[in-house]
Amino acid sequence: MAVNDILELGRQGLTSNRQALQTTSGNIANANTPGYTRRRAIVETNNLSIPQGANMGSGVEVKRVIRVHDQFVNKQIIDESQNFGGTKAKAENLQRIELVTQRDADNVNNLVNKFFGDLREMSLSPETTAIRNVVQSSGQALASGMKSMSADLEGMKQDLDYRIEDTVAQVNGLTRELAELNRNIMQGSTRKDTVLDLEDRRDSVMRELSQKINFQTHIDDLGQISVVTGGCILVQGERSNALFAVRTAAEGEKGPGSLDLFIKNHGEGRKISGGITDGELGGMMHVRDKVLNPAIEHLDKIAYHIATEVNSAHQEGEGMDGVSGREFFKDIGSNAQGAAYRFDLHDDIKSNFENIAVGYSGSKSGSNEVALKMANIQNEKGLLTNHLGTQEQHTINESLNALVARVGVETQREGNLFNHQKDVVQQLENYRQSVEGVNLEEEAVNMIQFQTVFNASAKAMKVGEELFDTILSLKN
Hints:
This protein is an alpha+beta fold. The protein has a domain at about 5-70 and about 440-475. Helix content is about 60%, strand content about 15%. The protein has helices at about 5-30, 70-125, 130-190, 195-210, 280-315, 340, 345-350, 370-375, 395-435, 440-475; strands at about 40-45, 60-65, 215-220, 225-230, 230-235, 240, 245-250, 260-265, 270, 385, 390-395. A four-stranded antiparallel beta sheet has the order 3-4-5-6, covered by helices on one side. It has a three-stranded antiparallel beta sheet with strand order 7-8-9, covered by helices on one side. It has a two-stranded antiparallel ribbon with strand order 1-2. Helix 2 runs antiparallel to helix 8 (about 370-375), helix 2 (about 70-125) runs antiparallel to helix 9 (about 395-435) and helix 5 runs antiparallel to helix 8. The longest helix has about 60 residues, at about 130-190. About 35% of the residues are buried.
């Protein structure tokens, strides 16, 4: 081996181990950087071209620097994060709904008891004028309680729609960034630039996006990631398609005036709400369509039942002025939709409590049949209610309790699923960190190893230089 080969081997050792030291130093510096994947320098032999076939030794070079990346685990994290985002959105929103529903339902239950209790008191003292005033007041309080609960449920529904719009904006921001990262990674790869930081960022964006919306991914031969949701392309190479939310009419379990999701594709909008089943978007739409809308519909049925049954009984009697056929509550239409919000005393009753009927029309003084008939409505099982998956006939109070129970069961179930899914994602993330994360002890050992070889390579070059000087001195 020629002296210059010794110098070349030393130079390659210095260069390759310097690059390996730089990689290790970068790992140590980014040990606490979120989303960072540790790097590893791939060092391989580099055979020297030596005349006459005498292969006395091999050089070394850093062929490339790679990310220690487990694609399978990252795919698992993305898949499970979609479930995590969905259960998180459900659990958090259902907890708020449960608190409001429990509070308002307890209030309405008490007002129902007070109203029908006052009707019973009125039946015991049919000729007492003051008790009619009490019935008027309790009826008005019941109407206010119904309206308040309906407004609270509708308010939470609107709040969910606002949250959906905000999440759609976040999804669009992430998909735009993902498309830009695809472009930059492609351009960097073409120029043979290091794109490891861009790939780290792209993985982080994918994990963040997976908590917002459910999707499927595909990686082409050029390393470009495509994202598909609801059968439509969100991201393909350098192009992203934006989502947008539009308020549409009722359909299926979706209430009137709720937001539907569309995707812009070649300038046209395509509805994809049915394909959004997970992530925060899917979770919020589930709570809105499968919990809040049924709760609103349930309350409307209760209000419609009370109004129609009480009115039917009250119309059979007459007030103190001898006029019959009056309604106690306002006519709230031919169906239950929106009944709770429209629930109110009839203007005739609101203006004069003496118009409240106690006995049948034409009956003698002291008759109380109408008051008794109205009071007994409370205990009649006249409400068909979906209770924990079965159709049952309930009283008014039982139906209100069933409404609360349904929300409570759903809240408990989604809370348990959220805790389980949180543990699953955390376990996967811990495993990813064990594979891709920076271990400071391991990096310290690598640094000592590379430093030792670097020093030895420098020593080899020093020896080569001394040999070269010796040869020159012999010639002189």
